[in-house]
Design brief:
Layout lengths: L6 E5 L3 H14 L3 E5 L2 H10 L4 E5 L7 H12 L3 E5 L1 E3 L5 E3 L1
């Protein structure tokens, strides 16, 4: 679509992660970024708002990112999904999980 911005959905239980990824993406691109800390709210948003890319925390309590990604992909037909996890070590540093 000419002139249409890429639509990105971020799902993470840490607001800091959503804020950081949103800031990075909007600084360098014209992406339209939506973020949710509650997976159910993100799923409800997806019902009415198609997105091009989903960036999701893989290990949120009570949430199966792979199953959710499969459902989103099934409904959209074309969707890029990135699932990741970060954890804090005892020194407070973020590390990939």
């Amino acid at each position: 679509m000419a002139g249409a911005s890429t639509r990105v959905l971020i799902v993470d239980d840490e607001e800091m992660v959503i804020t950081s990824v949103r800031a990075f993406l909007t600084l360098e691109t014209d992406f339209c970024v939506h973020g949710f800390t509650v997976p159910e709210k993100a799923a409800a948003f997806l019902c009415d708002h198609p997105v091009d890319i989903v960036i999701s925390d893989y290990s949120m309590p009570g949430f199966d990112a792979l199953a959710a990604a499969g459902g989103a992909l099934w409904s959209s037909g074309t969707l890029n999904v990135t699932a990741s996890t970060f954890s804090r070590n005892s020194a407070g540093d973020l590390g990939g999980g």
